[in-house]
Each structure stands twice: as C-alpha cells, then as structure tokens.
Specification:
Strand order of the largest sheet: 3-4-16-5-12-8-9
Number of helices: 19
Distance between the termini: 7 Å
Structural class: alpha+beta
C-alpha cells in the first residue's frame, strides 16, 4: 500500500471502498484525538494526519498514545494541544513513578522528542543549575553515540534510559543507562554513512582515514564545529575539566589512527608509551601457548587487521562507558521518592544487509511492541469491564509467537546463536543450519537463503532478511588475551581492570532488556509513537509507504 501527497490529497490503491479517503471535510486541527473520528480506518486517519501536518500541527492523540510526525524543521506549537509537554506535565503532577516510552523507525524523531521531554521536565524545577547539567548530557551522548546513517542525520546507535530523580517534589539527581552501543561502526560503516560524530569534530580531513571516509552527502542538519564547542562546554558543566577532555579527545584520535596503522605507528606508540617494535609484536604477531611454551605466530595482513579492529572497538566501548560513568557519578543521588524515566531506544531497522546489530535492535522493538499491546489493550479491556460492557469484542494480534521464536531458552534464534558461539570451532554456517530446521511461521530459511547464509524473520513491522556472516565474532566480541594484558598494563585513565565478559553479547543484551521491561512495568506508562513522513528527510513532504 502506498500513500503519496499530491495537491494536498492522499492517493492510494486500497481494499477499503466504503469510505472515500477524503470523507473528512471538517477542520483537521480540531481533531486532537483520532478516537473522535466517525470512521476510524487507515485512510481517514492518514488524511487527518496529513492535514494537520500541512498546518504544522505534528502532534495528535490516539486515545492514550501521542503520535508525533517528524517535521524535519523547527516549528512552534501550542502546548495546550497534544504534545510531549502535556505528557511531561502529567508525570510531574501525579506523585508516582512514570516511564515515557518513545518508539518509531530510525529517523522518526525519537531523540528530538526525548530532548523536548527532558527540557520541559528540568525547566519546571526549582534547581535550574541541576536541570542545565542534565540537559548538558544530550550533546555528550549524541557526540559519542550518534552518527549519520542512510535514514537519519543524527541516529542514536545505542539505546538510552534516562532517569530523573525527585525528592519532595524537587529534582535531586539523574542516571543514564545505555544499551548495545554499535561498536562495529568504529571499523565498518556503509559508504554513505558516517562514523560517530565525535570523529568528525576532530578530523576535517576524514577521507584520509580508513575508519572515517565516506561518500555521504553534506548534511545541513550537522554542524560539527558548533557541536564540538557545545560538547566542550557540556563537559565543563558536568565537571569534566579541560585536562580530562583533552585526554578523551587524544584517545579518540588514537583509535582513528589504528585504521591507518602503518602510517601512524609513531603516534600510537607514543600514546601507549612503548616502542614501535613492541607495538608491531603486539599487532603483527599472536601469542600461542603450546604446553608450557609460548610461541609468537606471524599474522598475515587480514589477521592483523582483525586484531587491530577488535582492539579499536573495545577501546572505544570502554571510553564510552567511562564517559557515561562520569556523568552518572556527577548527577546520581540515591535519595529520592519518585522518578520520571524516558526510554529513547533504537528504531526498527531494515537495511540492504542486516546483521546481528539489526536483529538485536528489531528484537528490542518487538519487546516494546509487546509491552505496548499488553498495556494499551488490557487497559482498554479494563475500562470496558469497569463500565459493565462486553469486552469480548476487543481482539488484537499480539507478537508473543515472534518473541518466543527469537528468545526462548530452547529452540530459538538466540539460543542457537549463543550455542554455536560457545563451540570452539563454531561458525556462522552452523547457525543457519540450525535455523533451517526451525518449524515456525515467523522464521523463513529457504534453500536459497541457506546457501547464502541468510534467514528471514516476520516481525510485527514487516519481514526482514538477516545475513549471519560475522554473527559468531560479533557475539563473542573477540579480543585476545595478549591485548587484554596489554590494556591492563598501560594504566589507561578510562580503564581500571579490563576483563573478558564471559557472557555473549546477545545473552547479556537479552538479560538487560528483560530487567528493563520488568522495571518499567512497575511504573505508570506513557507512549509516544514517532512517525517518519518521508524517506528523504525533508520538510513539507508526506509520503508514507
């Protein structure tokens, strides 16, 4: 089904023939809640959203949910109408714990919506200085965790859960929990995408570096020089002084230099305070233990690159975690009687090639959709029951079966990925072989897909094909023992004691997501569904596929 804006009219081919698309002739700006429409079907809903969008009225309620259509431009709006501020106001007034869940596809405006909520909550507080410090975390997290992708100029490549703590009605602290930073982006990204923003603050000659070069179009939304100045101010605002920030920036430079290892050996060896010969021995050779004897195996160029790239990704992840911990050290206060939480997590993703990162991201969206279904429809049924009405008429399709085939303790995608990852000689093809035998309507692995190391999952938002190439290495997050020893010997300012995480990436992420869901289910829930009106990321265009 394809919807396209043409002379202020939506056109499509659709099975619904009982009601013309433009059957609503009233003032769309007066339809603050789509529930009030006489005919509540897709054409009517989209037609009202279109008319509101053309009038820069981008927020609309649909019962308990706020819809936000990304305008791709700065607009002004009435906060007495539906908007994120009204949800924030409700959270402030009601003396219970609250969680606002913001979801939608990549580029739909989740990050900006999160900032609107955060700004309103912190500005309506007696301690403006603390509020400013909380707001300052936005540019820090975006600089180190966001990047330009094909679908979004400022895409969050990690999930974040922001907690605002209250004591006696006053903000007295904040804490940030992060999820699944996309570290593979450090060493591999699409030709038309960028690495994390921070690299481009520091390197204007980015096409000279293997980790940074790209052919992405110039983006008017991005101003690296301006954002770099804002980042330095934000660091000072949370007590990261110029000396520490310089160390952070120097580390970013060194991580980038690893992508051009042979050209920047001098800089890298100086940073780690070792000789070039010691550096080459570390990255051009591999220690192997045979009995009681340790020998040094020469690595070929491909093997050496794998070792260097693994080191770079692990170094960046440790630096990112260090920055988040510094934020939390400065802002966290354990004395509170209420919290307001904002969950800004990755949007549903479909790329030309989808890997383990997209599987975890889309699994997250499946989990949140399941929570959404449980909360919204069960709440609606309870209202019917309270009114003495027959609630049997409420039926909805849930995604329990899809979730179970992804994360069940046995006979599931995650189970097989973790099982094969634990084999000494486990490989990506073994994962496909096991998935091929899965009996599920939600998983597809044809003979052709199997031959190409691929499989498909029928998610709630659509079918996605995944390539299992590199699933094992990504899930293990391989880093050799000699690199771990080297890191711990260096006494780097952002690493106390580097240890291998015995849990696999998928297993750890699944456990963290389960904890998150259990926590937010104990709070009052509010939903904001962000909608991307066009794939060109331009204002004044409403083309929904």
């Amino acid at each position: 089904m394809y919807w396209k804006l043409n002379n202020n009219t939506l056109s499509l081919t659709d099975e619904i023939t009982d009601y013309p698309i433009n059957n609503y002739s009233g003032n769309a700006n007066e339809v603050n809640d789509l529930i009030t429409l006489i005919h509540l079907h897709q054409p009517a809903i989209l037609n009202v959203l279109l008319k509101r969008y053309n009038n820069n009225t981008i927020y609309t309620n649909i019962n308990h949910i706020l819809l936000a259509v990304n305008p791709f431009k700065k607009i002004s709006y009435n906060i007495n109408q539906p908007c994120p501020e009204k949800i924030a106001e409700t959270c402030l007034k009601i003396k219970r714990n609250h969680t606002v869940l913001i979801n939608g596809e990549s580029g739909a405006g989740k990050t900006e919506t999160s900032k609107i909520l955060l700004n309103y909550i912190t500005q309506n507080n007696k301690d403006n200085e603390l509020g400013e410090k909380i707001i300052a975390t936005n540019i820090i997290l975006e600089s180190f965790g966001n990047s330009k992708t094909i679908r979004n100029h400022n895409s969050s490549r990690f999930g974040k859960f922001i907690q605002i703590f209250y004591n006696n009605g006053k903000i007295n602290g904040s804490k940030i929990k992060t999820y699944l930073l996309e570290t593979i982006r450090i060493t591999h990204h699409s030709e038309f995408e960028r690495n994390f923003h921070i690299f481009y603050y520091l390197f204007e000659n980015y096409n000279d570096f293997n980790y940074l070069k790209h052919n992405a179009k110039k983006d008017n939304y991005l101003n690296d020089k301006k954002n770099f100045e804002e980042l330095k101010d934000a660091f000072l605002n949370i007590n990261i002084d110029s000396n520490l920030s310089t160390k952070i920036f120097d580390t970013i430079k060194i991580i980038n230099y690893f992508g051009n290892y042979n050209e920047y050996k001098n800089e890298i060896s100086t940073y780690f305070n070792i000789s070039i010969q010691q550096l080459d021995q570390l990255f051009m050779k591999q220690k192997i233990k045979i009995g009681n004897e340790i020998i040094l195996k020469e690595l070929n160029d491909s093997e050496s690159k794998i070792k260097i790239d693994s080191f770079s990704r692990n170094l960046y992840k440790k630096l990112f975690d260090f920055i988040v911990s510094k934020i939390n050290q400065y802002l966290t206060n354990d004395t509170y009687d209420k919290n307001i939480n904002i969950l800004d997590i990755f949007g549903f993703e479909v790329f030309e090639i989808n890997s383990l990162e997209q599987l975890c991201i889309n699994y997250t969206n499946e989990t949140l959709q399941n929570l959404f279904n449980d909360y919204i429809f069960n709440k609606e049924q309870q209202l019917y029951q309270d009114e003495g009405l027959d609630c049997q008429q409420i039926s909805f399709t849930n995604n329990d079966k899809i979730l179970s085939i992804i994360h069940n303790p046995k006979e599931s995608l995650f189970y097989y990925i973790n099982e094969v990852s634990s084999f000494i000689k486990g490989n990506d093809k073994q994962i496909v072989d096991k998935i091929f035998k899965l009996d599920s309507k939600n998983i597809n692995c044809s003979n052709l897909q199997k031959a190409k190391n691929k499989f498909s999952v029928k998610h709630y938002a659509g079918e996605v094909e995944y390539s299992v190439n590199d699933f094992i290495s990504k899930n293990k997050n391989i880093i050799s023992d000699d690199l771990i020893d080297f890191i711990n010997e260096r006494n780097l300012f952002f690493i106390n004691n580097f240890q291998k995480n015995k849990k696999k990436i998928v297993q750890n992420f699944q456990n963290e997501l389960l904890k998150l869901r259990k926590f937010i289910e104990t709070t009052d829930l509010h939903f904001i569904r962000c909608i991307k009106p066009n794939d060109e990321n331009i204002p004044n265009a409403f083309n929904i596929n």
